[in-house]
Amino acid sequence: MHTIDLTYVGLGIHEELVAYVADQQDYYRQEGVHVALRDGCAWDTERVRRTATIGLGRAVLSRVTDGIPWTVLCVNTDRPLFWLLARDTYASVEQLKGRRIGIHPPTTAPGCFSRIVLRKHRLDPDHDVQSVVMRPGDYSRHLRELAEGSLDAAFVGSTLAPEVTARQHGLRSLAFVGDHFRIPTVGVAVDPTHIATDDPALLALVRANRRALRTIRDKPDLAVRYVNALIPGLAETEARRYYERYVAPYFTADGRHDPSVAARAISSVAEELGVATVPDAADIYRTEPAEQSAA
To answer: Which is nearest to 154 in space by CA: 107, 57, 87?
Structure first.
């Protein structure tokens, strides 16, 4: 039995769903690997790079800014599961000009992606709005400040179901980040300095990940139950709507990515971060066809 550490660097459906399905369905054991799932949300990049990581967004940002040779072997989705919620007063993103928006730090993956989305709506995040940098978590502070009026809008992640949260708190969901910016953003990546891309434990992990992706696609009732387990406050019908809107259409069935999407995304990220030298997306994303399962 091989062993490997797999690190998540965020919470919610976006980072957790595929690994959760692989674990609950016993795919890791069947593929001959013991996967130690590690909470790396507070880890620095140097510690994360000694493990396999789910957080492709964070890995890619450090590849662009610091040249860390992250290599992606499997992609879960290229639609970042983040949303812009606003007080019900606002009917469009453009109406937020001059308003206070809660946003992740600009050098984090969700912060970078959110800033790109604001620019797509002709809002400069440094000049046209009042960006309030807020660390992610359960987003209770974001919701509280929206209710109090100290924020007009806030970007939130997939520990919440956006439409349900908006309804419960009298808010409006103005934008799904994945509708406006695509980037292969969760899956399996390693730094070959520490874990070789042909490491047997890593390949077994990738096989299990791909099996979980097929299960999510082919067994919707089962997938809905797992979505509901990760967001237990949802009713079954709400979990199903979440799955049908954000998971079924956008999660891959085989872990492979669209090279043209990856290339455009890397260029956009480099531009947002002010990095002149853009790495070749083909050197980062290497999602070859799946190997034969060991099961």
So the answer is: 87
The structure tokens listed for 96 are: 């937020």
Alpha carbon distance 36, 172 (integer Å): 39
CATH 3.40.190.10 segments of the chain: 2-79+183-284, 83-180
Separation of alpha carbons 24 and 282, rounded Å: 32
Name the token pair of 101.
């928006």
> What architecture is the 83-180 domain classified under in CATH?
3-Layer(aba) Sandwich (3.40)
This prediction has a pTM of: 0.94
Partner residues linked to 53 by β-bridges: 7, 189
Over residues 164-168, mean pLDDT: 97
Specify burial of residue 187 (Cβ count, 10 A radius: 0-12, 13-18, 19+): buried
Write the pLDDT tens digit of every residue in 113-149.
999 999 999 999 999 999 999 987 779 999 999 999 9
CA angle 201, 44, 17 (to 5 degrees): 50
Q: Which CATH superfamily is domain 2-79+183-284 in?
A: Periplasmic binding protein-like II (3.40.190.10)
